[in-house]
Amino acid sequence: MSELRAEHSIALRFLITEELYLVDPIESLTALAGGQDSTSVTAPVQLAAVEDIAAFDYLGENNKYFAILVNCPGQQYMPAKELEALKSILAAKKMDIQDVALVNLNKYPSANIHHLKTFLASNRVVIFGVNPQQLQLPAFPLNQISEHEGLKVLVTFAFSEMMTDVEKKKAFWNVMKTF
Description:
By secondary structure, the chain is of the alpha/beta class. The protein has six helices and five strands; from the N terminus they run H-H-E-H-E-H-E-E-E-H-H.
């Protein structure tokens, strides 16, 4: 039987469910030598990497660590017609839906880019119709590749806007094909 090892913060969140306490071993030994009660301990240790990390439901298998973020109220991911158009865009880039993680942010109003990046391990993200500041990102310009803490970011129009406006679709595609 092999030893169980987990270093990922999400795994630790599920494996370590008890409070952890930090005890100074030298103080404890000194207290024991002096006959004092050494049962006092310091406050619980907070695991900063674990707290506030959310789990996200997404479509795809995230094989290329490529996140696609949308805001589609009333949908699990996005409307069927828009999803088919997204699949066509991915196919033009020689990718398919298994290569990405499609997240509907409407289900996660308090999500931020740190949570998403940690959970999805993304190195690229396309944000359709969501204000980047809502995700605690700087105000990036539309249809330009930007970078934030090692993450390439493309902010563009809502998918529904591009479905009805050819100029917006062209502006997006001119950048997306090199992203």
